[in-house]
Design goal:
With 662 residues, this protein is an all-alpha fold. The chain has 24 helices and two strands.
């Protein structure tokens, strides 16, 4: 992938300037305030659900393509440099990972829902309410009821009820973000410079800020091939969206009437399904991947369907219960994927052992020959900061009730899952992904509820806020921001302050937005997924685990080991034989149920790229690449534009093609 930096242009000497930080702050605050509204009121395209950070791309597209062009046309010197534009995008990209499914829209409904949805029938009050720490959940039942049902006329939001729990949750999530940032700084050089990972999800913004000559309009916006690609999903999506306004216009319905470009095929005697979905944006991202990575993603996904179908036909079914947030492909495949992820993490540590030794030698003053001047923070700060962040998380979890001896095991599971999902984003370009098994489920399954105890189960239930329904989170966004930061030469250290500002304004802005919307309209009137489904799922599984003591799942451990052994084979084959066609990343992530919505798009892109390289070579690939970048931007822009239109017209529930897979 040729970025602006790699194409022979010098890096920008002007990066995190005061005006770029101001613009980034305003746009980040806008994202924090507006995205909860678009999700809960407009209920249109979901621009903050996936790792391609659609909201950031759409806002940046409007700013660079329109606002910045007008500013530069008025006076050339007012135009922003590449480094300044990179700073703005880094801020809005990180901001997009916070306000909805990333954190804010999970937090408030869950911690309030544990009380609101407690009934005589489910017996939550007697089962686990006394086990939840009072400082982590609101205590005023009237304030909670009004959160879900709306405030009486003339009443005001009872902020005093929320101040203590919100304070401690902000402490926790900032520690998680800080630890994630430090860990990504530690691995950056290994991933970016030694392994040369592609970072596909940032190729569109990098192309947007590429300069050519003295033109006011960026060359990306003058490329007709890009606009042809842009028009395909934009026009199809807009046509489909018009049906909500004019029912006389027939909607795009394909594959047996199940929706636009999506179908579920029943296979293996009706025991399992194969999802067939065409997604233009995902095709665009997959076209940027290495072919071995793309092949591994779609082929291992089909093999997972085959494995699940064979198990179902033969009656090999687990009786274990995992939370709703775990892989609905079944416990066996969930544990198998966890074993594969563990091996992949340790294989990465072994591959990068020389680099990591350099990092720790530099951190403790014994690596004078190691240069960390091009990092956003020194290795000393990163290593000590990671230790401090993990310490804060550990104390928080311990005080919430998790036995101290289980804390490091839980954090190891978090680290494995977060790092592999981040690796899937920066190497595999997987925009749509979820974890196969949550850290809480891994600990509960591996050690049994009897050993963990009621307090421990309840504390793990609180992690469903930030470490369960993981479709977008901070670590991949920060890892991608480090790739964008290469566009900034001097002032690179300032980028961490710009990111810090973006995190804070988005975090507080989004929490305020969710709170105001809930108390104004009543949470149960807003969105059933967040205000009904998510807290119900979390509370039900906690009550079940507490009420039914269980031993460790030895079947789960068996499949964890099997997954680890199979992954070891794939890792060794890739390391020993250059002809080996399958990337081991595919085996680690392709059992995830959500990958069934991705595999076809990846396969189409893989086939297209293979044909292009075979018959046209690298030159034809470079010529066709803008078309696929246009597919990405066109699909995201279609959802963004229709959200704006729906806001002014008052339309609700109008989703262009793509839905939650924007």
């Amino acid at each position: 992938m040729l970025s602006h930096t790699s194409s022979g242009h010098s890096k920008d000497s002007r990066g995190a300037s005061w005006r770029s930080v101001i613009v980034g702050t305003v746009l980040s605050l806008f994202i924090g305030l507006s995205l909860p509204y678009t999700n809960m009121i407009i209920k249109g395209g979901l621009l903050a659900h996936n790792h391609n950070t659609p909201a950031a791309l759409f806002v940046f597209f409007l700013f660079v393509g329109m606002a910045h062009t007008v500013i530069a046309a008025i006076k050339r010197s007012w135009g922003f440099t590449r480094g300044e534009l990179a700073t703005i995008y880094v801020m809005v990209m990180v901001a997009t990972s916070i306000p909805t499914i990333g954190f804010s829209e999970n937090l408030l409904p869950i911690i309030a829902g544990y009380s609101y949805y407690s009934t005589v029938e489910n017996n939550w009050a007697d089962t686990f309410h006394g086990l939840l720490p009072a400082w982590a959940v609101p205590q005023d039942t009237e304030a909670i009821r009004h959160f879900y049902e709306g405030l009486p006329v003339g009443a005001s939001i009872p902020w005093d009820t929320w101040l203590e729990p919100l304070f401690w949750w902000v402490v926790l999530i900032l520690a998680v973000y800080w630890s994630s940032a430090c860990s990504m700084v530690i691995v950056r050089r290994q991933w970016m410079e030694r392994e040369k990972l592609l970072y596909p999800l940032v190729q569109v913004p990098l192309e947007m800020i590429r300069d050519e000559g003295n033109s006011i309009l960026k060359p990306f916006f003058k490329n007709p091939v890009m606009w042809i690609g842009f028009s395909v999903p934009f026009l199809l999506g807009s046509y489909h969206a018009l049906h909500a306004y004019f029912p006389v216009i027939p909607p795009i319905v394909t594959f047996g009437g199940q929706g636009p470009f999506i179908a579920e095929l029943t296979v293996f005697r009706g025991t399992t399904t194969l999802v067939v979905m065409l997604n233009f944006g995902l095709i665009g991202f997959a076209y940027l991947l290495s072919r071995d990575v793309a092949l591994g993603l779609w082929l291992f996904c089909l093999l997972a369907v085959l494995q699940r179908g064979i198990f179902n036909v033969l009656g090999i079914v687990s009786t274990e219960t995992l939370s709703r947030f775990a892989n609905n492909s079944g416990p066996f495949l969930a544990h198998q994927a966890m074993g594969a992820m563990i091996v992949l993490v340790f294989a990465g540590l072994w591959t990068g052992r020389d680099h990591f030794c350099d990092v720790f030698r530099k951190a403790f003053g014994r690596g004078d020959n190691v240069d960390d001047g091009d990092e956003v923070m020194s290795y000393r700060v990163a290593v000590l900061g990671l230790s401090g962040g993990l310490a804060v998380i550990s104390i928080w979890m311990w005080q919430a009730g998790l036995p101290l001896w289980l804390v490091p095991i839980f954090l190891l599971a978090v680290f494995v899952i977060f790092v592999i999902l981040t690796r899937a984003v920066v190497e595999g370009g997987v925009a749509v992904i979820r974890t196969p098994i949550t850290p809480a489920d891994f600990v509960i399954s591996g050690f049994g509820t009897s050993i963990i105890g009621g307090l421990g189960i309840a504390s793990l239930g609180l992690t469903y806020v930030w470490a369960a329904n993981i479709r977008i989170f901070f670590m991949p966004a920060f890892a991608n921001s480090l790739r964008i930061a290469q566009e900034i030469f001097h002032c690179r250290h300032r980028i961490k302050w710009a990111i810090s500002i973006a995190v804070l304004v988005t975090l507080f802005g989004s929490l305020w937005s969710v709170m105001v919307l809930a108390y104004r309209y009543g949470g149960i009137n807003l969105h059933g997924f967040w205000f009904i489904g998510v807290p119900h799922n979390a509370g039900t599984i906690i009550a079940q685990f507490v009420a039914n003591p269980s031993a460790p799942s030895w079947d789960g451990w068996l499949f964890t080991v099997i997954g680890g052994l199979v992954q070891t084979f794939f890792v060794v084959m890739r390391a020993r034989f250059v002809w080996w066609p399958l990337h081991p990343l595919g085996f680690a992530i392709s059992t995830f149920s959500i990958m069934m919505y991705v595999w076809l798009s990846v396969m189409i892109a893989w086939a297209a790229k293979s044909l292009v390289l075979k018959y046209g070579g690298p030159s034809l690939y470079r010529d066709t690449r803008p078309f696929f970048l246009g597919l990405i931007l066109g699909q995201i822009s279609c959802s963004g534009w229709w959200l704006l239109i729906d806001y002014f017209t008052g339309m609700e529930g109008n989703q262009p093609i793509g839905g939650s897979f924007v």
